[in-house]
Write a structure and sequence with these properties.
Blueprint lengths: L6 E3 L2 E3 L6 E5 L6 E6 L3 H16 L10 H17 L1 H12 L3 H23 L5 E3 L6 E9 L2 E5 L5 H14 L3 E5 L6 H12 L7 E3 L4 H10 L5 E5 L2 H11 L5 E5 L5 E4 L7 H16 L11 E5 H15 L20 H16 L3 E4 L20 E4 L6 H4 L6 E7 L2 H9 L6 E5 L3 H10 L4 E4 L18 E2 L4 H6 L2 E9 L11
Parallel strand pairs: 7-8, 7-10, 8-9, 10-11, 12-13, 12-17, 13-16, 15-16, 17-18
Antiparallel strand pairs: 1-2, 3-4, 5-6, 6-20, 11-19, 14-15
Family: Belongs to the aldehyde dehydrogenase family.
Pfam families: Aldedh
Organism: Streptomyces nondiastaticus
Length: 502
């Protein structure tokens, strides 16, 4: 397979039908990292046709493969991921800009996801028996695969997000076509290689590298696609839903968030508590340079500790070591693209124009031995004296920008945290157990952390309220997204009904 043959259809690696190619750039220096095929509508149609054949085939088709065999394949993929951990982590680091250690953690989490869904399907029963009120009636609800799934993944966690879709789709007995972001497609290509090595039958899994338009758009509207699972920005998610509507296919959307990190004064009562809360606020906002859908980009801190908290936060943020993610000692890598860098600069400029106070960052750092010239680096930025009317507070910035708002009462804190169109995740920091439960219960967000930020579990559902999307990934509900419920009702002693006189 040449470097440009990155489209995988019916078990065969190929170039785009048009012959088009795309350069994938290294965000650390803007130089060409790889060349991939630039798929189009023809490639997409061919991939969907292959997935359709693999789903609709006879006895040997993937939906009719025994659950134990499907689970065994997922476990083999997990083993192969661990075998190739360093290669995959390095690819993910170079492609996305994240640190190598983050890449390693991603690979481990991906392996965990494959194992989780393998265990989940094997541990299930044969269906839910329904009491029909008679010994002569047998009623059971079973779950069957949806069919052909279009899986569209984002650029910030390409491998991780692919696993959250591929693993449950395969476990449930579906076939799929996956389209990674054209900005960061390389780890998905590696994943597809591992799926093939693990023994995935031809046509069950297909990959088309290319742009959202036409590949993602065609997948969303395609009449032979039964489900679209999309993770990405709000505007693109709306387009996916609109394109899918005429065919009334299932749609699952994870569209990001504008996530509050609420810090009460009692969480900073001791020096140790204060250090922990500040450290976690840095982690919430600046991991992967803020390019995280669940980033705690809105710090909402109690007024009595605000000045001390923000001063220490800014002091530490200035010391974050920026550079190429593969270099030792680097804590944050570059933004993923020139477009994302431009957007980040524009958000900071709008915030300052609207009255925010810059505490640190706000510009590109000077190049040095670990930050090549031309890279898309931006200094971690803390903006104080922010309010809800500001664009930087309302919109998902997907950059290393932390805004600071303050509150005096618990009710005010909850109101600020919920004052967003999104509802993906949020956190509350307090030593008061009663307050922690009250605030967590009132926050309208799909995940709420108490005295923590960012961890997730493959066995717990992930998804949001409001414009953060529809449906859930991970957990039992994440598997249910890729299934249809069917009620089978059997009369063991049929008799004439005599409804009509005859």
């Amino acid at each position: 397979m040449s470097s440009a043959e990155t489209i995988h259809i019916d078990g065969v690696w190929r170039a785009a039908a048009s012959g088009a190619q795309r350069e994938v750039l290294d965000p650390a220096d803007a130089k060409t990292l790889a060349v991939v095929s630039e798929g189009g509508a023809d490639d997409t149609d061919a991939a969907v046709a292959a997935a359709r054949r693999a789903f609709d085939g006879g006895q040997g088709a993937w939906p009719r493969t025994p659950v134990a065999e499907r689970a065994a394949l997922l476990r083999r993929v997990a083993e192969l991921l661990q075998r190739d951990r360093e290669e995959i982590a390095l690819t993910e680091s170079r492609d996305t800009g994240k640190t190598l250690e983050e890449g390693r953690i991603d690979v481990d989490c991906v392996a965990d996801a494959f194992r989780y869904f393998a265990d989940l399907v094997v541990g299930e029963g044969a269906g839910r028996v329904v009491d029909a009120g008679s010994d002569t009636l047998h009623s059971v609800v079973v779950h069957e695969p949806v069919g052909v799934c279009a899986l569209i993944t984002p650029w910030n966690y390409p491998l991780l997000q692919a696993s959250w879709k591929v693993a449950p789709a395969l476990a449930a007995g579906n076939t799929f076509v996956i389209k990674p972001s054209e900005v960061t497609p390389l780890s998905t290509v590696l994943l597809m290689k591992l799926l093939a090595e693990a023994g995935l039958p031809d046509g069950v899994g297909n990959l088309v590298t290319g742009a959202g338009d036409p590949v993602g758009a065609r997948l969303s509207e395609h009449p032979d696609v039964d489900l679209v699972s999309f993770t990405g920005g709000l505007a693109s998610g709306v387009k996916v839903a609109q394109a899918a509507a005429p065919t009334v296919k299932k749609v699952a959307l994870e569209l990001g968030g504008k996530n509050p990190n609420v810090v009460f004064a009692d969480a900073c009562a001791t020096d140790e508590d204060f250090d922990t809360a500040v450290d976690q606020a840095l982690n919430a906002a600046f991991i992967h340079s803020g390019q995280v859908c669940s980033a705690g980009s809105r710090l909402i801190v109690e007024e009595s500790v605000r000045d001390r908290f923000v001063a220490e936060l800014a002091r530490r943020a200035e010391k974050i070591r920026l550079g190429r993610g593969t270099e030792d000692g680097v804590e944050c890598g570059p933004l993923v693209s020139a477009q994302q860098l431009d957007k980040t600069e524009a958000y900071v400029a709008s915030a300052l124009a609207e009255g925010a106070t810059l505490r640190c960052g706000g510009s590109q750092p000077e190049p040095n031995e670990v930050r090549p010239a031309g890279g898309y680096f931006f200094s971690p930025t803390v903006l104080d004296h922010c309010h809800r009317a500001m664009k930087v507070v309302r919109e998902e910035t997907f950059g290393p920008i932390l805004t600071v708002e303050t509150f005096r009462t618990e009710d005010e804190a909850v109101a600020l945290a919920n004052d967003t169109e999104y509802g993906l995740a949020g956190a509350v920091w307090t030593k008061d157990a009663g307050r922690a439960r009250r605030v967590a219960g009132r926050l309208r967000h799909g995940t709420v952390w108490i005295n923590d930020f960012h961890p997730y579990l493959p066995q717990a559902e992930w998804g949001g309220f409001g414009k953060s999307g529809t449906g859930r990934e991970l957990g039992p509900a994440g598997l249910a997204e890729y299934r249809e419920a069917k009620h089978i009702y059997q009369n063991l002693a049929p008799e004439p009904v005599r409804w009509f006189a005859g």
